[in-house]
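note to self — DONT lose this again. spent like an hour looking for the file last time. sequence + predicted structure for the chain T wanted, 403 res
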Amino acid sequence: MGVELGDDGVWPAVDHEELEWRSSDTSFIPASRRVRSASSGPYRAAVLPPIASVAQVPLPHEIATEAVDAAAEIARFDAELGGEIAPFAAILLRTEAAASSKIEHLTASVRSIALAEIGDRSRRNASSIVANTHAMTAAVELADHLDEASILAMHRALMEEEHPEWAGRWRTEQVWIGGSDYSPHLAVFVPPHHGRVSGAICDLVAFMSRNDIPPLVQATVAHAQFESIHPFPDGNGRVGRALVHAMLRSKGLTRNITVPVSAGLLTDTDAYFAALDAYHEGDPAPIVLSFSEAAFAAIDNGRKLVRDLHDVRRRWDEVIVARRGSTPRALAELLVRQPVVDSPFIQRELKVSAQNVNLAIRRLVGAGVLNEIGSAERNRKWEARDVLVALDAFAARAGRRSR
């Protein structure tokens, strides 16, 4: 099924081409760095081999088995929550977006992210993480038809507020990773020249449409190839990980939730980045292993989060004095997926009047479920601390070791 060793037992490695670099303006480069940054002269850019028609993904037997087992665990976790999708689908989607953003050094507190979800744009990183949630949502919604247009739509959902000038467009300039800010000469990796992006994406889409490769292996390799193409000026890592979830949904591995795989990757980001380097050298095994291990870690962490949230709901049931189906009960359910709220948000979500919302808020404050935050009378907000504590614990378990 496309995962044993191929005829020659290798995966095609990245090749390179020499290109001429000409900086249009070097006056902004400090004189002390102009020579060192090599503001002009030849540089080497990656040339990616096509993968759509490569017969096999060469994996050692134990790693291929690990990937199959991880895929089965993903499907099992998805099925466990299938009967009670809301609110866990929203919570897991947001935790995945936050973890994926954290890999890119975009961090924000759980409270800040929740505030950004209801319109507070005062914290830039939190707003970026909310945008990543939108990209994840777009990825899942587009899973039934993954092509060039759907990838552009994911990027547009991620970047349209921050960079509308190139959101949802392939890059038109050379980019590079690491090294100098002024030229690609000292870079750790130089993705393909922008003239090669469209063809490389077309080949990737053809690879993603194959049905002879186990889903998690295929999604992982597609992610690694996408990151190697680096088709956008920014947001490649986040869109590339969103693409993984789109493929897992497309291949039927998930149906109800987004498994927070990025939270698993956070436990060892060194291994993740080193695995991408190995992929460039023609070895897909480390990146497949990295994602397989991340899936197991993420599911274990996700199960703990779900248990914590179940415990929160049980405690609330004991202290909320209101009939089933009432506004206070509906608000309590809403708080599990959105732990920071204001009155306009609750009115929109529950479709009830401001008067009923205020009565429900007072009931939950009296029960110790909600606490008021801030002091502005015209912009009052409340938080469910029990939920925030559970989400903070999830993030702490994920941890992070930076490269």
